[in-house]
Specification:
Elements (H helix, E strand, L loop, with lengths): L1 H14 L8 H23 L7 H18 L4 H4 L6 H9 L13 H9 L2 H12 L2 H28 L23 H26 L10 H24 L2 H25 L4 H15 L2 H11 L7 H16 L10 H8 L17 H32 L11 H17 L9 H13 L4 H12 L3 H8 L33 H13 L1
């Protein structure tokens, strides 16, 4: 299960960087992810009921609801009552044909293609939720070498210029680093997520190598790992400078603040020294100064026009007009391009380009799925807030303390991707959706932890409270009824309830320890 999950994550990273559904790379990724989806569902079925992660059922139920509503054929008497179906009715009647059964989506093929792209993220989420804590930690660490390779690829792309053969998509940003993605904003989103997990790795390695009672001792293996984590953070910050994404740079600042919070929380949990904080601050300083002479002017040039383009405001206005027309059920998942083209005005058109997304995932979700999609999104945000509060309160008795930094990094990664989705569409790519799904799985208690928590709640009954209040019993000697146990003699050892030592023995032990 772990090997299949890691393979699917890597395949999503290599093949899922496109922004359009229905490409050949998406089809290959969907076929590669099918075995993991089947194995994950089978594994989840084998887990006892009290150990199953319940969030999987909620996600699968919501996906099945949207799938059935968007693609289920409806009789003409029903689908003709849906908003803005008159153009479809007139086009069918113009060729003198009877109205057929049709689904709720105005373009079922696009909806089916969009839903098929969810196979890889859904399979990773289900499989990772069934894995235990240490295996999840390894999946989180798998993001780090992928990010380093992506930054190196972006460096080659910038060095080779616009005609670089290492740009794997036709419609891309030809002057910036994009890595394995088609868009610099999505490449930047992947990098600030990797910064969070790198900081979690840094906090973990420092806490392992520098115990709380030691100010100078540090294990060599942990020192090497901590140095590698700090160096990786510097590399990722340099990659952000090459990407030149305005939203990515702004969210990277938030990610760095979250990284400091992760290392500080880890230090507080185990009461360790501040080595991780110093290493992280040093890495941030070097990462901010190192690329400045080479990329500062290119980054500042991106902010000359402001944070938001007027074109995006026009897109948002037209998308809202379309959402109001198709209210309350939406036009269908994946149908934004043809639907928006029917509402676009000539003055809003961009020369030699077309609008493929609303640059606001919440607005696009409202247009495509109506109030149901917005309700599912609101329920997810509520689950994220509750889970984040539980994770950031501190390590629980059943969760290993060394796995807490990755769960905290996952909460921040989900939050930053949701914020980014308000001005762009990072979750419209299979690669970033898979990272998002993996982060959600890291926030869920492993099956064994869920079983322990369920057992703890089941034990809080009247019998447990009664046994807690009952006084401890003393052994008595066998004899006549109601016979009282004989008192111990003065020479006998006293009966005690917990291990103690006489004062003399304790004083002798203290002197011997000082002598040694």
């Amino acid at each position: 299960m772990f090997a299949l999950t890691a393979f699917t994550v890597i395949a999503s990273f290599l093949l899922g960087g496109g922004t359009r559904s229905g490409m050949v790379s998406d089809a290959i990724l969907e076929l590669l992810a099918l075995p993991l989806l089947l194995c994950g569902l089978w594994r989840w079925r084998d887990i006892p009921a009290d150990r199953r992660p319940r969030s999987i059922f909620v996600v699968c139920a919501a996906s099945a609801l949207l799938l059935s509503m968007q693609l289920l054929p409806l009789p003409p008497a029903l689908w003709t009552m849906l908003p803005h179906r008159q153009p479809i009715i007139e086009s069918i009647q113009s060729i003198q044909r009877d109205l057929p059964w049709m689904p709720m989506s105005v373009d079922p093929l696009l909806t089916l293609a969009s839903l098929l792209t969810m196979i890889a993220p859904l399979s990773v989420f289900i499989a990772a939720s069934c894995l235990e804590g240490e295996q999840r930690r390894h999946l989180a660490l798998l993001i780090l070498p992928m990010s380093a390779v992506s930054v190196f690829l972006g460096l080659l792309q910038v060095a080779q210029g616009e005609d670089s053969p290492l740009r794997f998509f036709n419609y891309t940003n030809p002057t910036e680093a994009v890595g394995f993605f088609a868009n610099r904003n999505h490449f930047s989103a992947f990098l600030y997520c990797a910064i969070l997990f790198a900081s979690a790795w840094l906090a973990e390695t420092v806490s392992k190598g520098a115990p709380a009672d030691s100010k100078h001792r540090f294990e060599m293996t942990s020192f090497v790992a901590a140095t590698a984590a700090a160096t990786l953070i510097v590399i990722l910050l340099s990659g952000q400078a090459m990407a030149r994404s305005r939203a990515g740079i702004a969210l990277t600042l938030l990610a760095l603040s979250g990284a400091i919070a992760i290392t500080y929380a880890k230090r507080r949990d185990i009461q360790a020294n501040g080595s991780s904080n110093r290493l992280l601050l040093g890495a941030i300083t070097v990462g901010a100064i190192l690329p400045a002479p080479f990329a500062l002017y290119r980054v500042l040039d991106r902010f000359d026009a402001g944070m938001f383009d007027e074109t995006r405001w026009a897109i948002a206005i037209r998308a809202m007009d379309a959402a109001r027309v198709f209210f309350p059920f939406g036009a269908g998942i994946g149908t934004f391009v043809p639907v928006y083209a029917g509402f676009e005005r000539p003055e809003d058109a961009v020369v030699n380009a077309y609008v493929n997304h609303a640059h606001n995932d919440l607005l696009e979700l409202f247009l495509e799925s109506g109030v149901i999609g917005v309700g599912v999104a609101a329920a997810f945000i509520g689950w994220w807030a509750r889970s984040s509060w539980r994770i950031w309160r501190g390590p629980s008795a059943s969760r290993p303390a060394l796995q807490e930094p990755y769960a905290r990094a996952a909460t921040l990664a989900v939050a930053l991707l949701l914020l980014h989705s308000l001005v762009d569409y990072p979750l419209r790519t299979a690669a970033m959706t898979t990272i998002f799904a993996l982060a959600c799985a890291l926030m869920i208690d492993p099956p064994l932890v869920a079983a322990n928590r369920q057992r703890d709640h089941s034990d809080d009954g009247p019998s447990r409270r009664k046994s807690a209040k009952a006084p401890p019993t003393r052994p008595i000697s066998i004899g006549t009824p109601n016979a009282q146990a004989p008192r111990p003699r003065a020479s006998a050892a006293p009966v005690i309830d917990w291990p103690t030592e006489p004062k003399g023995a304790r004083r002798q032990t203290s002197v011997r320890e000082k002598a040694e």
